[in-house]
Amino acid sequence: MSEHLLEVKDLKVSFDTYAGEVKAVRGVSFYLDGGETLAIVGESGCGKSVTIQTVMRLNPEPPARIVGGSILYKGEELTSKTDKEMRSYRGKEFSMIFQDAMTSLNPVVRIGKQMCEAIRIHEKVSHEEAKRRAIEMLGKVGLSNPETVYRRYPHTMSGGQRQRVMIAMALCCHPSILMADEPTTALDVTTQAQILELMQDIQRETGCGIILITHNLGVVARMAERVAVMYAGQIVEKGKLSDIFYHPKHPYTWGLLGSMPDMQERSDSRLTAIPGSPPDLFAPPKGCGFAARCPYCMEICLQSDPEESPVGEGHTARCWLLNPYAAACRPVPPVGRDKQLVTPEVAGYLERKGVTQDGQ
Amino acid sequence: MVCKELIPLKKYILQRLVISVITLWLIVTVCFFLLRLLPGNPFASTTIMTQETLDRMMAYYGLDQPLWKQYLTYMGNLLQGNFGYSLKYAGRSVNYVIASTFPVSAQLGFQALVFGIPVGLLLGILAAKFRGRAMDAGINVFVIICTAVPTFIIAALLQFVLGLKLGLFPVAQWKSFSYTILPTLCLSLGTISGYARSMRTLMLEVDRQDYLKTAKAKGLGNARIVIFHQIRNAIIPMITNLGTEIAGMLMGSYVIEKIFSIPGMGAYFVDSIQGLDYTMVMGLVIFQAVIVIVANFIVDLLYGIIDPRIRVA
Amino acid sequence: MEKEKQPIVDGGIDPALCRPVDRSKLDTDQIVRPSVSYWAGVWRRLKQDKLAIFCALLLLVLILLAIFAPIFSPYQYDQTDLLSSNLSPSAEHWFGTDSAGRDMWTRVWVGARVSLAVGFIGAILPFLIGMFVGSIAGWFGGWIDMLIMRIIDIGLCIPSMIYVILILVYLGGGPQAIIIALAVMNWMGPARGYRGRILQFKNREFTLAAETLGASPMRIIYRHILPNILGNIVVSLTSFVPAAIFMEASLAFIGLGIAPPMTSLGQLASDGAGMYRTHFYQFAIPSLVISLIIFAFFMLGNCMRDALDPQLRDEMSTSALRRRRRQEQLQKKQKGAAK
């Protein structure tokens, strides 16, 4: 039915806590095709990690609970699968790279053993075969003398090396989707570039789909084809790179673009940091989640949550400003129309990829 | 690879040896003078004797000498491995007493450890895995009862119920294996509850670690995650106290040995302090200290083998 | 109903609602979750815990009995009556009498007084000493630290029985002597632990900040570091009190207890332990009371530890878990019934 590799529809996830139900993800929909990269951006705590961890069902249940929605992978429904059934998907179909490779590798088990176990759980291969493949993979991710690395413990390696090991481990069963949860946040700039390059190479070679979580828009411009902007447990805007960077429609996206370090230095910029902080998802607001911080807030925004409305091909946003009646009452602010919100760095990446203002 | 690790290891062992000898010497010295601070003399309570016999006894054991001279003599003997003779039981050497009582206490302690540690760990793991459920609550109550009821009360109760009423096990004495069951059980309760409690906490701590999420993301089954990744990491900090724990258990427990009339070292020790049997107390203290030091040393070496992070540092 | 609430008219919005909102009236940092201070949060969780309430009440009852029962008893704790020795519990002597004909009800509660006093003071005193010594060692470091830590190393190697006997021989078998003996036995553990904690906080930014402002070491320790580890201290104290009562009981069994006719629960229980074949109640009653006291303290400490652990804050409470499971079972049943 679905022609997409992965399709998430109206996913809702809650956490049951002492204080009550925290609605961490409130109706998220997106899709991913093979060979493409989808970036999910947003402030910390907006539900990015919860969303992709729910796809893999990594959140401990309880306290996490899928309240509604569906996750279709190659046409198969995943939300109704048991933990045991999900096991054959984890590592084999989906793999995950975490932010902190330091704490994500078991400190008391040799790297090789951690990799072999991932291979042998999914494929019936001999120990020697698994070892051969692990070493091959370690070589592929650019680690010099992989045989030594195979025998080492995680703490003897640098952050960049460990992240390479994580990637090698994630790839050793040739997954069709690689999920990367802020893979470069904990690394220094030069290592960041290397790791991103590595991920691109791997995608080119294996044709896997990548879901990349980040809050670095430079990384988005460099890596992704499509972007989803998340705020307070919802996707407020999604679209192609050119849509998001050159024709953003949601005030939060404007704010996000405007709060990039480079933008703040530009004197003509009226939008700088977004004031305030996101709402507490313990009791999400009745209206738009962003209303309280939105410079273009209207009465209706406080009363009712806007629907997702299409603004272009594959480009949607959740905002009352896009409603024709609102537009009639209130002129759409100039931002995003005649104003450039793209930093030179991002513009450079976009240009190299051939993304233009006119939408390619 | 092996050679690289060997050289610092040798140096490390040597260092530990020197520190151990100094510690031992300090312990001996402090104990020696502390004991002499106690009022009274070892022969006062045994029999009513004349001043003349008393003086002769004191002279015989060298107790009439100035304290520093006694100390030097004692240290001299000690260096030759001679702990001296008991002041209470004429003709019994301290070495003989240790040789005859230690195996009893050690057997009891060893049995209690072999039974107690695995059971304790298992209970801790189960409690952590079934956190917040009936299993967890039940284990918690059991652990707290074990820590709350004084040992002699548990021992007396077990004796009363299992020994006297049900007649399952012999109540006292030390003859065959069946005689060791009740005291082993009593002695291991403390170990079980201690290990269960810390293992539960440690398991829950490891539960929050990212590498467990990685393991889950790899598609591993729950059993493998728990056994291979969680328990392995949780168990490491438990090793720190293992040395003291083992040493303490091997030395015997006064309460248990007294209640079950077991001829072990624990009972001997307390009796000797109360009877001011200087040489006996000193001998037992030194023996005990050596065991603690050796056990701690072995555990530290073990730690290095189990935790790779320490091995390199 | 829902549709009526929607302010959408013919696919558009009611123009009245499109007025811009006065932003100065909006709270951009909306905090919906009530901001609970640390201790208020602890108290809230503790109150929810039925087990904690039960243990606290049990302890309260036992403490009140220990204070008032001997006062209202017609017998004195040391009043012997050889004609009525070893009587089983009756209306006259609720807990029976001992071999010297003393009323066990009175003696048990007098003993509980002693045990509780020994427990409280015998736990707090070594703790304070240990905290003081540990903070000196941790803060000043260098040779002071080295010296203190070596003393502790050696002290821990020498069997505590030696000092205990030494102290009891000098001070006699009163409760004070037992407390001092407990203090000498137990100060070293907290000193070691507290030193580690101080070291852990010594190089934190807020400590350094206070230091650059010219605060004295003691002020930094007690103003800035102590509040951070207070929770931890409270939890360890709740386990120290029962441990002290426990140790007193063991000492009593060894024969190093309170000298008669004064008594403690441990003393009574260990006296009774020798008689359990003939007069079981003399063993069972004091044993039960002492076990209840220690049990209630430990349980309360456990609950407090759970309430204090901030990491448990966002996780699901046991009661909420149970509620969920019940709901799931109900749903399953309904599904089954529908089929």
C-alpha end-to-end distance of chain C: 33 Å
Report the strand count of chain C.
Answer: 2
Annotation field: number of helices of chain B: 14
Kindly report the spatial arrangement of strands forming the biggest sheet of chain C.
1-2
- Name the helicity range of chain C: 55-70%
Beta-strand percent range of chain B:
under 5%
Instruction: Characterize the main sheet of chain C.
Output: 2 strands, antiparallel
Please give the oligomerization state of what you see: heterotrimer
The CATH superfamily of one domain in chain C is identified as MetI-like
Q: If classified by CATH, what would the architecture of one domain in chain B be? A: Orthogonal Bundle
Q: Level of helix content of chain B?
A: over 70%
Description:
The complex is a heterotrimer of chains A (360), B (313) and C (339). By secondary structure, chain A is α/β, with parallel strands linked by helices. Chain A has helices at 48-55, 83-87, 101-104, 111-122, 127-140, 146-151, 159-171, 189-206, 217-223, 241-246, 251-258, 261-265, 299-303, 324-329, 344-353, and strands at residues 6-16, 21-32, 37-41, 64-73, 76-77, 94-97, 177-181, 209-214, 226-231, 234-240, 308-312, 315-318. Chain B starts with a helix and ends with a helix. Chain B is mainly α. Chain B has a domain at 102-276: MetI-like fold (Orthogonal Bundle). Chain C has 339 residues and is mostly helical. Chain B binds chain C through residues 23, 26-27, 30-31, 34-35, 37-40, 132-133, 140, 144-145, 147-153, 156-157, 160, 164, 208, 254-255, 258-259, 269-270, 273-274, 281, 285, 288-289, 292-293, and chain C through 153-154, 157-159, 161-163, 165-166, 169-170, 242, 246, 249-250, 253-255, 266, 269-270, 273, 276-277, 280, 283, 287, 290-291, 294-295, 297-299, 302, 311, 316, 318, 321-322.
